[in-house]
Amino acid sequence: MKKYCILLSELWLCAFFLLTGCAGTKGAEEKKSIRIGVSLYRGDDTFLNNIRGELERCAKDFEQEKGVKVTLDIQDAKGNQNTQNDQVERFLALGCDVLCINPVDRTAASVLIDKAMAAQTPVIFFNRQPVAEDINYRGRVFYVGASAEESGRLQGELVAQAWKEEGLDRNGDGVLQYVMLEGEPGHQDSLLRTEYSIEAVTGAGIEVEKLANAPANWNRGQGAARMNQWIKEYGERIEVVFSNNDDMALGAIDALREWGGPMPLVVGVDATAPAREAVAAGDLYGTVLNDARGQAQAMVDLALALADGRDPGGVVELQEGHYVWLPYRRVDRDNLEEIVRELEG
Ligand code: GAL
Ligand code: CA
C-alpha cells in the first residue's frame, strides 16, 4: 500500500511538471509567443537608443522569419536603481521569458539576479558590465558587450597615427599635451578607455602630458561645459582631446567652435550617426565603432534560445560560459564611407 502511494505521488508530480512546464530545466519547446523585458539605465543615452532601435529591428525580423510573436517590453530606468528594481519585479510578475538588463549601478546586479533566479528567469546584462562574481556564480546569467580595453587601444592608435602624420605638436616640445573627457565614474568603459587610450599612445613611443581630466557622464552638454573650462585654463596648449564617447567629443567640438581658437585633434568612441557626420566634416578626427547592431543581435539570439530552452552556445559564441564579446572597429576618414555603407545601406 505504502509503495503504491509513493508511486502515485510520483506520477502526480510528473503530471504536474508536464502540465506546468516547471521541471526546472526546461526542454526545447518552441514557444508561439515570447515576452522579453528590457530595462535601459537611461532612455536619453544616444548609444542606448541605437541599441533600442536595433533590438526592435531584430525582434521584428525574427517574427517575420519564424512566425513567432516577440513582445519587447522596453522600460527606461532614468538613472535610478530603485526604479529599475521595480521594473524587474514587474517583468517577472508579467511572466517575461527572459530579462535584458542594462544596470544603472553595475555593482548592484546581484539583487536583480536574486529576483530573476527565484522566478527561474534567465538574465542577459548588457553594456554596463556587472562584476565577474555576479555573472559567474549562477546558472542562466549572461553578459553581452564589447571589450572596453580594446576601444581604448583603438582610440589611442588613431591618435598615435595622427601624431606621426598631422603635425599635432603645436608648441614643438616633442610632448603631446592632452585633456581627457571621461564617462561616468566607475563605468568599465570610462576606466578602461581612459587607461588604454593613453597606453596605446605611450606604447607607440610618444611622450604625453595630461593637462586635465574630468567626468562628463557621457553627455554632450557636460562635455561642452568641461571643455569651456579647459579652454579658459589651457587654450592653445591643448593638442588633443580624448573623449570616452562621441557625445562628449561633440560637446567639446561645440565649445571649441564657439571659442574660435585653433582646433585640437578630437577623438571619440561609439560612431553614432552625428559622430559619423562630424568625421565626414573633419571636426572629429576619428572614433571607434561600438557595434549596437551586433550587440542587439546577440542579445535577441541569446534571449530567444533561452526562452525556448535551447542551448545558448548553439546560437552565440559564449566565452567562459557566460560572456558574448563583440569587436570594436576603428573609424576615421579613410574607412568612413565603408562603415556608413554597412550601417546605413
Ligand atoms: C558606453 C557608450 C557610451 C554610453 C555608455 C552607457 O559603452 O560608449 O556612449 O552609452 O556606454 O552605459
Ligand atoms: Ca606639444
Describe the protein.
By secondary structure, the chain is an alpha/beta fold. The protein has 12 helices and 12 strands. The strands form 3 sheets. A 6-stranded parallel beta sheet has the order 2-1-3-4-5-11, with helices on both faces. It has a 4-stranded parallel beta sheet with strand order 7-6-8-9, with helices on both faces. The radius of gyration is 24 Å and the shape is elongated. It starts with a helix and ends with a helix. The relative contact order is 0.12. The model is unreliable at 1-27 (pLDDT under 50). Residues 169, 171, 173, 175-177, 239 line the site of calcium ion.
> What ligands does this structure carry?
beta-D-galactopyranose, calcium ion
Uncertain runs: 1-27
Mean pLDDT: 92
- Find the count of extended strands (DSSP E, 2+ residues): 12
